[in-house]
Design the sequence.
């Protein structure tokens, strides 16, 4: 297996990308191809580890790419014109089977455009969407769309529900994943026009499409562990995602300060450290890795824009699992067989 | 001062409402008028406390109202037809100056309809909105609209920003409250149509309307303590609110379980209990009381639907402060003077 890593994308690139790859290489079996400015990457590796890349692992490779897509770049323009950027080169390698999965922490819009234009949508899916995995009570919660499609129609939300069902069934071995619609109340009359119409469409099509649609879900019940996936348009989904992130940060900061308020508090909290660590781990979004672009023909993983070395490491490990599970092949298979089933 | 309490509204009514009022009565100076079925209220008080209402406090009163607006009732129909319901009676008393503030944990839609139809909007405000107060890092965050207007226009968001500025200036003594627009990125091109247009309108009108508009704010930065109010349409705002609630519950559950996983963890966490309590208090949304309907001519407070006795107690205490601060009078004053300022 070959994992393609955009080494120039993200707030902490290329340092965090490179360190993450080096940390991950002995924890995975795949080859990791660092895509970016070869000279820069080689110099960084020498600086960080005092040796050549080849001395670290024979599964660590480089593909030279001289340009970089910046956060300020207009997605379509960047994808069309920066042909030798780490992102475009990565997508082309993925398309031509020179790699099994592409990971990037770069410009989200460009990543979506590139995935759609250069790799292509799965037949039957109008809009690929970003699926993020969040921690939930004794389980996890898949959020789709986590931010790629700001304006959606009910048909898009139906397809998001379908994709998440297929993904959770095949990758998490959840036989009948519970899919909820993110709303502000549980009654079917609640919400704005989009969610009200989407509710009706989901209710109507659920059985035919093998979706275990559990109805409207409010944010306060999303983390109960009873819901496996939550469906929303990309704007609402992203608000949901970033709110959980923001509150998570606030919780950590407040918790740390409560335990280090004064010397006595510090000393008294020492015996409780294992419990505090256990709790922090539950709350650590980072260990859940990157988000997946569901609906494109090959595996594309969006790493968090502010990824550090540790998060890149986790994302690489998760990407290897993603490929092993053949999640995308199964998605293609199910979407292509569907019309036949209906006859 | 007289506080009007809808004693029949909410998931735990009338028990929690009555207990909350009895608990609060010695912590406030106001009179509390319990609105609802007199016989039921009197019987409950006797059952809970073994004495008559008059023996508890001479500031505890009853106004009989024979009907109740249920959660399933259609708001406009209920307000128009259930004329002797605790909610409609409460609004009428408020309008006729038989009380200074009305609190209800009942049907939100009916409460909004009643506030608008029976009490009336402040001149210059198209849509009153629910303003909730959330905890933030070393401070608090005002969220407006927390859920009353599912479909909004940019002018509504501009007015929400104005109302929260006036409110925070007068009630929290924040001279120049920082008002952010809830969005999925900080750049002005981010978001859906509503937020992009609202951004432009806010930018254009901020100086004229004395709004310290700090631009787009992502959920992840909302709790940093740097933002005093966050503006959103009622759908997005409610998703934001309930997501923080949901994550808050999940955090508490996980934290408790981490500290009680086994006997050793339990014992070891004893010395850290004060720190844990300190942290839990920061995270306790309940101590922040109810949400306010800003934009109506008299103070209306929406208590949480699932309020227990403690939450009713907090909400009563907060409502007394709300009246003392003359927040609504100042709102009317500022909105009415504005046209003159513009000349």
Sequence:
């Amino acid at each position: 297996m070959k994992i393609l890593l955009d080494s120039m994308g993200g707030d902490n690139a290329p340092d965090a990308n490179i360190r993450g790859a080096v940390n991950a290489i002995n924890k995975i079996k795949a080859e990791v191809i660092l895509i970016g400015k070869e000279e820069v990457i080689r110099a960084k590796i020498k600086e960080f580890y005092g040796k050549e890349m080849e001395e670290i692992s024979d599964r660590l490779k480089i593909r030279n790419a001289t340009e970089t897509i910046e956060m300020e770049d207009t997605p379509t323009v960047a994808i069309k014109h920066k042909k030798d950027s780490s992102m475009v080169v990565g997508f082309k390698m993925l398309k031509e089977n020179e790699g099994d999965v592409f990971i990037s922490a770069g410009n989200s819009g460009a990543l979506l455009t590139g995935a759609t234009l250069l790799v292509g949508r799965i037949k039957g899916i109008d809009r690929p969407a970003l699926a993020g995995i969040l921690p939930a009570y004794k389980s996890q919660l898949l959020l789709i769309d986590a931010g790629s499609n700001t304006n959606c129609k009910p048909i898009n939300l139906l397809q998001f529900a379908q994709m998440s069902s297929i993904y959770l069934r095949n990758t998490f071995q959840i036989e009948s994943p519970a899919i909820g619609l993110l709303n502000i109340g549980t009654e079917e009359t609640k919400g704005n026009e989009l969610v009200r119409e989407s509710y009706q469409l989901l209710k109507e099509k659920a059985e035919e499409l093998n979706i275990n649609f559990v109805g409207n879900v409010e944010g306060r019940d999303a983390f109960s562990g009873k819901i496996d996936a939550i469906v929303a348009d990309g704007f609402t989904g992203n608000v949901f995602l970033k709110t959980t992130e923001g509150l998570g940060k606030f919780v950590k900061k407040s918790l740390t300060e409560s335990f280090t308020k004064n010397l006595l508090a510090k000393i008294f909290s020492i015996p409780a450290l294992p419990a505090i660590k256990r709790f922090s781990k539950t709350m650590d979004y980072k260990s859940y890795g990157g988000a997946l672009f569901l609906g494109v023909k090959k595996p594309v993983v969006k790493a968090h824009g502010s990824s550090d070395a540790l998060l890149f490491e986790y994302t690489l490990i998760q990407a290897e699992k993603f490929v092993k599970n053949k999640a995308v092949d199964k998605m293609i298979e199910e979407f292509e067989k569907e019309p036949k089933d209906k006859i």
